[in-house]
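Colleagues,

Please find the record for the two-part complex below.
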Amino acid sequence: MSKYFIRMGDGYFAEFTEAEIRQDLEDGTVDAAERGSIPPLSEDELQQLFEICTAPNKFVSVERGNELVLTFDAGTLKIPRLGVQMGRSQVVQLHEKAFGADTMELAHIDYSFKPIKAIVHEEQAEIQSALLNTVLPLFYGAMPNLGLYTKPDGPVENPAELLPKGKIAEARAAQEEAIEHAVKDMVYVASKMYEAGADGINFDTVGASGDADFLATLKAVEILKKKYPDMCIELGMAGEFVLGMHGDLYYDGVRLAGLYPHEQVKIAEKAGATIFGSVVNTNSSMSFTWNLARAITFSKTSVEHASIPVHANVGMGVGGIPVSETPAIDAVSRVSKAMAEVGKLDGL
Amino acid sequence: MGMAITHALASGMGGIRTSGDLVARMQMSRGMRINDAKEYVAGKLGVSVIDLSNEIVMEEVREDLNIGKIRTLHQNAKGIEAKFRIAKLLEIEINCVNRFKRLTEG
């Protein structure tokens, strides 16, 4: 019986038989379908994934004509974060000239709207310089990061400390207060960067602090779209499921806690987002095939529900990519191909 | 960075090597889905959709239309110069181009 080397969700290889791979694909899509109350992948789609996963090539790619658009969360952080000393404008140029990037994002190393508020004028100067020298569309990106508004870093009480004490009402009030602060900071920074010439604003890891984080971003997007109707806004999520840290927050009558990607995208659209970034978490204890089938099931349904372009997040530990700081090329290229050809994404 | 480059090679449009920046601009400015954006750009460039990711064809098209390319000589539009031409070609508003005009005219 032939065996295949398939990675686990933590990146390590394990041996699988054909039957085991097919079972994991089936279990992965069923898991997503049950959690999200969405349809599982068809037999044909599972067969496509099987062929992608078991292709003998180390690197796989889409068929000609099936390419999609790439956007980059935390774009200019990636090179300096490796310890390579390079200015951010040069990082944008490097992506444009050498890395085949379709778009790029300028970002500050302290990647949240709150700390950027104090240095926004320097950020404006940096993006103005980058925009003069490059052709590709350039986003400015940061995270809503509601956690920064809690004591001792911020002005409001910490819900994570209040909740274990049973102070539910106080924890909710603190989050509601944090929303107001975060909305002001996001609107302020995004306005400044757009007025400096940015092609778009990327709200990255939305919902990282739960439903209040998501609501703050939706409110900011709504205000920005009224203020600048032509502004491109990408709203990318932090996880597949909106955590109910508050539990009783609504947008346009829809309860935010517990929403999955295909529901999140409809809310993002209503607020005025131009592009939605869907996220599906990788389970490091399960196989790559299980994770991929699960990620494609959620992502494909998001695309089908959306009226705006959907760019799946496919960085380390999301979208079926194994959890690793040095993601394996064979796994990354398989996710890339599967997202384009089975998930029918508009971008990654 | 292995990840960004891997995605670019496995499924990306190719950026300014081909037409990736142009297709992205249609998603960003008009909210077009991927196939609509490709068809729109192909129509404006006068090429087939399949050639949008063909470096050899697109290098010539970008040279002829002077809309920026990987290696630029003195006669080629670069940076913001190329974006002025892209805005006109695709009939879209480009924020930094409009800002440039506001600050240099009148």
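The longest strand of chain A covers residues 200-206.

Comments are welcome before we finalize the supplementary table.
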